[in-house]
């Protein structure tokens, strides 16, 4: 049992699981790009749907496992904390993309729409938290609405990708989404798809181990569920998004990088749906603590700032990065300091 391991070995198991998830995600990025080219669905959609969902698997396993064990705060904070951390990763990637502001170069209507969709989906849990406590068969109605909204949003994202009603202005710094190999669309997608599925299984198994060790951290070291969820397991299970973003930027697949983060964040809202189903003590949304809601607000604010940057498309800002990246780093740092030094424990119900 993981809970019986000595602390040194516990940290080692946690590190091995995190490493396995990250290494699997590096290979998954390359395969997602190949799948995007061979199916011709585009990098933004591949990043949002294929890569985003796959790299989020470890996180959803953590939230579901935490909810099933009865720790609603851990499950909720892991989900929304991961969204904030992953948005920060785009700001870091912007630092590494020297040619131009990343949000300028990765102009893509589908990414704009998915950012709007993410803001809508993140607003829905706020309605549940602030409304009366209710649950039917242990599930809050907002979870069903959130799931349906996600499916509808995915469909609309596909329409935006296939038949956009407007196009971004092309500049010398804009990176066009097109296959790296002109022969790629004629090749079979079966082999890379099967390899991709195998990597997803590795990431899922790693997520389960991370969830178990996180629960032990809470109990053994008397840490708050919000702290562990938002700053430990959420960040660790978000490392695949960080790695895939950096790899995609290095490969020049900028739409894939931005789409992977926004699409992954959109998929991460489904953590709350799955966790609400797994949580058997009523509504997950009324098992949250004040700091969990703070991280939800942080994710909302960072997404709105990112959307503003994608629309503004500033070529150069402070230190050759966009002003939105500076703001994203400042917002996350503020949330980090607040979580560590200003933790509150009152229930939000």
What does this structure look like?
The radius of gyration is 19 Å and the shape is globular. It is built from 12 helices and no strands. It has a single domain, classed as NCX, central ion-binding region (A middle domain of Talin 1, Up-down Bundle). 73% of the residues lie in helices and 0% in strands. The chain is mainly alpha-helical and 349 residues long.
Brief digest:
The protein is mainly α and 349 residues long.
CATH superfamily: NCX, central ion-binding region
Q: What is the terminal-to-terminal distance? A: 34 Å
Q: Look at the structure and give the mean pLDDT.
A: 84
Low-confidence runs: 344-349
Structural class: mainly alpha
Tally of DSSP β-strands: 0
CATH-scheme architecture: Up-down Bundle
What count of domains describes the coordinates? 1
β-strand percent reads under 5%
Q: What is the approximate shape? A: globular
Q: Spell out the helices and strands N to C.
A: HHHHHHHHHHHH
Which fold does the CATH topology refer to?
Answer: A middle domain of Talin 1
Describe the structure using short key phrases.
349 residues, mainly alpha, A middle domain of Talin 1, globular
How is the secondary structure organized here?
Layout: H1 7-39, H2 43-55, H3 57-68, H4 72-96, H5 102-105, H6 109-130, H7 141-162, H8 190-220, H9 225-251, H10 254-278, H11 290-312, H12 323-341
Helix pairs in contact: 1-2, 1-8, 1-9, 2-10, 3-4, 3-8, 3-10, 4-9, 4-10, 4-11, 4-12, 6-7, 6-10, 6-11, 7-10, 8-9, 9-10, 11-12
């Amino acid at each position: 049992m993981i809970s019986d391991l000595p602390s040194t070995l516990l940290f080692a198991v946690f590190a091995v699981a995190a490493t396995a998830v990250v290494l699997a995600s590096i290979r998954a990025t390359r395969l997602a790009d190949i799948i995007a080219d061979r199916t011709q669905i585009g990098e933004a959609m591949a990043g949002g749907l294929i890569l985003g969902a796959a790299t989020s698997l470890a996180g959803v396993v953590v939230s579901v496992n935490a909810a099933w064990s009865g720790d609603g705060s851990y499950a909720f904070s892991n989900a929304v904390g991961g969204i904030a951390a992953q948005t920060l990763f785009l700001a870091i990637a912007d630092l590494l993309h020297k040619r131009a502001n990343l949000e300028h170069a990765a102009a893509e209507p589908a990414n704009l729409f998915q950012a709007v969709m993410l803001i809508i989906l993140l607003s829905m849990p706020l309605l549940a938290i602030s409304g009366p406590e209710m649950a039917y068969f242990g599930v809050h109605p907002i979870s069903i609405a959130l799931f349906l909204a996600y499916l509808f949003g995915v469909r609309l994202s596909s329409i935006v990708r296939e038949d956009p009603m407007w196009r971004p202005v092309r500049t010398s710094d804009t990176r066009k989404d097109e296959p790296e190999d002109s022969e790629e669309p004629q090749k079979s997608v079966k082999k890379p798809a099967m390899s991709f599925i195998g990597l997803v299984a590795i990431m899922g198994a790693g997520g389960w181990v991370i969830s178990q060790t996180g629960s032990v951290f809470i109990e053994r070291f008397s840490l708050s569920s919000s702290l562990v969820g938002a700053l430990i397991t959420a960040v660790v299970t978000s490392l695949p998004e960080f790695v895939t973003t950096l790899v995609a930027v290095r490969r020049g697949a900028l739409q894939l990088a931005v789409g992977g983060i926004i699409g992954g964040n959109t998929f991460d809202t489904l953590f709350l749906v799955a966790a609400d189903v797994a949580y058997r003590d009523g509504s997950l949304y009324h098992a949250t603590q004040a700091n969990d809601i703070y991280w939800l607000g942080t994710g909302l604010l960072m997404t709105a700032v990112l959307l503003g940057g994608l629309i503004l498309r500033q070529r150069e800002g402070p230190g050759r990065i966009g002003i939105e990246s500076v703001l994203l780093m400042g917002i996350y740092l503020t949330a980090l300091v607040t979580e560590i030094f200003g933790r509150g424990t009152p229930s939000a119900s």
